[in-house]
Amino acid sequence: MALVESLQKAIDYMEVHLLENLTIEVIAKQANLSSSHFQRTFMILTDLSVGDYLRRRRLTLAAQELTSSECKIIDLAYKYGYETPEAFTKAFRKQHGVTPSEARNGIGKLQSYNRLTIQVSLKGVEPMNYRIVEREAFKVVGVKRECPCGGEKAEGPGIPEFWAEMNANGTVNRLIPLLNGKIHGVLGISDNYNPESNTMDYWIAAEHAGVVPDGLSSIDFPAAKWIAFEVKGSIPTAITDAWKRIYSEWLPSNGYAPAELPSIEAYISQDLTSPNSTNEIWLAVQ
């Protein structure tokens, strides 16, 4: 349960310092996690980026103060981190559907996002099939693109569009003959989260021992202990559900924490939309 406790400690820290200029590095430090692993864990468990959570909470409190005090709107804008009343009004309308002036006059309804409490399920009703794999250093080759992580700040084509493009131009078919490692299937790899832009580097790749082919790049993975989780069901729903179970059930009830390595999704089945599709998630642990 140490993971849950550390996450809750970081959330409590955010609430205490909500009106300050918080950074992901300072918040993640409260949970004893790197900024990238904290953000990934937070998003998997809450479906929100840290930035989205802070924004929603600040605008919730701003709405409460707006309707219960005579504080000027311009003062509220500065108090809750907006450089101009116009920026505050735009964000306020996006969340609540009304302007601050309309809210003060009782027009429309307000959306309240309450303080977050992390809860996990340790029922173990459905088993999770996995194996522990001690691996020597290995390499993957493929193509990389910076992709938005989702949430309110997400802009531009994302991971599904990246896969569609690489399938259409033949890159995925080019990777399949290169597979000659222990991780089967074409891989989706997440790395280098950027909290400022809410983006990450996403790779479509294959484990390959050999020369890096022209037009492809590579990642070298050091020796590490990996947990390979079996994922059954139609993609992408099954992968999303598996990640939630890993972080909300498996990690809290086992003596491991994620290592500082990119996570890997291995797409093994030929028909990924089939309910009988079987694939894997590889998570490096310490």
UniProtKB/TrEMBL annotation:
<dbReference type="InterPro" id="IPR029442">
    <property type="entry name" value="GyrI-like"/>
</dbReference>
<dbReference type="InterPro" id="IPR009057">
    <property type="entry name" value="Homeodomain-like_sf"/>
</dbReference>
<keyword id="KW-0805">Transcription regulation</keyword>
<keyword id="KW-0238">DNA-binding</keyword>
<keyword id="KW-0804">Transcription</keyword>
<feature type="domain" description="HTH araC/xylS-type">
    <location>
        <begin position="8"/>
        <end position="106"/>
    </location>
</feature>
<dbReference type="Pfam" id="PF06445">
    <property type="entry name" value="GyrI-like"/>
</dbReference>
<dbReference type="Pfam" id="PF12833">
    <property type="entry name" value="HTH_18"/>
</dbReference>
<dbReference type="InterPro" id="IPR011256">
    <property type="entry name" value="Reg_factor_effector_dom_sf"/>
</dbReference>
<dbReference type="InterPro" id="IPR018062">
    <property type="entry name" value="HTH_AraC-typ_CS"/>
</dbReference>
<dbReference type="InterPro" id="IPR010499">
    <property type="entry name" value="AraC_E-bd"/>
</dbReference>
<dbReference type="InterPro" id="IPR050959">
    <property type="entry name" value="MarA-like"/>
</dbReference>
<dbReference type="InterPro" id="IPR020449">
    <property type="entry name" value="Tscrpt_reg_AraC-type_HTH"/>
</dbReference>
<dbReference type="InterPro" id="IPR018060">
    <property type="entry name" value="HTH_AraC"/>
</dbReference>
<protein>
    <submittedName>
        <fullName>AraC family transcriptional regulator</fullName>
    </submittedName>
</protein>
